[in-house]
Design brief:
168 residues, alpha+beta, Immunoglobulin-like, 9-stranded mixed sheet, 1 helix, 9 strands
């Protein structure tokens, strides 16, 4: 009789332990999802205003400008102009008509995820920011990119997109 009672007690303890582990796993999942949700805003903050894409712009030929809604102009350039992959690039952003406290350039592969690549630029003057970046190699011989210039301003986060391509 005591052997049967011990077996029943062991089964109850095992079920309780299994239930406890299920609850712990569920809580860990909820915590992970909550942290991911909170961090997504840090990685991709909401844009207050977005400039239209300037299709006539060719960053491989020189600087390009974009008019911001609500006023202001952003001029962006990459050097060297041939925009080589896996080599340091110099980024230059000039702003007129808007005061930016922080400037970043978010590089995104068009049609292919190329990972997180968002260098923060340093202020050179009140209206000019410079920094460096390196673009990763792609399996394609020609890769299309979008550089989103992100300006933190008193109007919120302003974004100006610029498109270009790289070649192996």
């Amino acid at each position: 009789m005591s052997e049967t009672k011990t077996t029943i007690d062991n089964e109850k303890t095992s079920k309780k332990a299994a239930n406890l582990w299920s609850i712990v796993a569920l809580l860990a999942l909820v915590l992970l999802l909550t942290v991911s949700y909170k961090l997504k805003d840090m990685l991709k903050p909401g844009v207050a205003e977005s400039a239209p894409l300037n299709d006539s712009c060719d960053l491989r030929k020189g600087p390009c400008s974009s008019n911001l809604p609500g006023g202001g102009v952003v001029t962006f350039s990459i050097a060297p102009h041939e925009i080589p992959i896996l080599r340091p690039l110099k980024l230059d952003v000039k702003v007129k008509g808007v005061k930016a406290s922080n400037v970043e350039v978010d590089f995104t592969g068009i049609g292919m995820d190329m990972g997180y690549n968002r260098p923060q630029l340093e202020p050179v003057t009140k209206h000019e920011f410079m920094g460096k970046a390196i673009l990763p190699v792609c399996v394609r011989s020609k890769m299309d990119w979008e550089a989103k210039v992100l300006l933190q301003t008193d109007r919120g986060l302003l974004m100006a997109p610029f498109r270009f391509y790289t070649e192996k």
